[in-house]
Hints:
Elements: H1 2-14, E1 20-24, E2 27-32, H2 37-46, E3 54-62, E4 76-84, E5 89-96, E6 104-106, H3 115-126, E7 129-131, E8 160-165, E9 170-175
Parallel strand pairs: 2-5, 6-7
Antiparallel strand pairs: 1-2, 3-4, 4-5, 8-9
Amino acid sequence: MxxxxxxxxxxxxxxxxxxxxxxxxxxxxxxxxxADYVAVAQTLRDDAQLRFEQLIDLCGLDYSSYxxxxxxxxxxxxxxxxxxxxxxxxxxxxxYAADDDLPVVPSVNEVxxxxxxxxxxxxxLFGIVFDGHxxxxxLLTDYGFIGHPFRKDFxxxxxxxxxxxxxxxxxxxQPVTIEPREITPRxxxxxxxxxxxx
Length: 198
């Protein structure tokens, strides 16, 4: 009943700004356009009927290989998990970047300052640019790192490796020397495996 009440309030407050409303496994997810993202976030925080005071998590998603490649839609998505302490509600807010080549969505750091490092992480790992973020730089990878390692098309081995060179007495970067290989696991079956006899 509580989740139904929340859904009704969201639809009454936002109307056609909600591109999609999903209720699954006792959780509610709303999707909005990038143009409405910050205004919706502000209302979610400030509206007395909603009061989502706390941003719990924010992450990026790459849908390029979703549904075994049958997915047709924007490639990059930002998902924000919110909590209302006042009403004891949780909500998932999704926004898709309009351009797959340069994914950009507005920053919600001014709405919830907890978004700061989460947005930096999504930028670093997925290459999603958060327009309006005042300090958008890499957070987890090295300053000279090339690419975004959580993108589905990023090679598992990466592009470069680093090692300490004893002759130069410093850390150097070089192209990856690992050769890709396919490993097929061996299955060994024993009659009395684990002391059990059949």
